[in-house]
Amino acid sequence: MSRVAATVEVVTTYALSVRTGAWTGNSVTGQTNTGQMHVRVQQSRDWVLAQFDNRTGWIQIHGDYTHTVSPG
Questions:
Q1: Judging by beta carbons within 10 Å of its beta carbon (0-12, 13-18, 19+), is residue 26 exposed, middle or buried?
Q2: If I label 67, which of 3, 17, 39, 44 is the partner at 20 to 30 A Cα–Cα?
Q3: What is the rounded CA–CA span in Å between residue 61 and residue 63?
Q4: Tens digits of per-residue pLDDT, 2-51?
């Protein structure tokens, strides 16, 4: 089995909603703030399924909402 490098990103906006799916109509399950790090698990257009500690959720990444720290 080969190892896959993960893309690590940091949230650069004040508050970013974490949702159940890649659409603003999906339920908000939490929020991230400036400086929160996450691993990019999957991407769908301008949405990323992100892993934060022991949870995952979809965040919108258009504009300057996130910045890549470690490219995968």
A1: middle
A2: 3
A3: 7
A4: 455 689 999 999 999 999 999 999 999 999 999 999 999 999 999 999 99
First to last CA, the chain: 17
Whether the Cβ atoms of residue 57 and residue 43 lie closer than 8 Å to each other: no
Query: What gap in Å lies between CA 7 and CA 67, rounded to an integer?
Result: 10
Confidence (pLDDT) at 33: 92
How many residues are there in the chain? 72
Token representation of residue 33: 């703030």
* Domain annotation for the chain: domains and CATH numbers: 7-70 (2.30.30.40)
Compute the average pLDDT of residues 41-62: 92
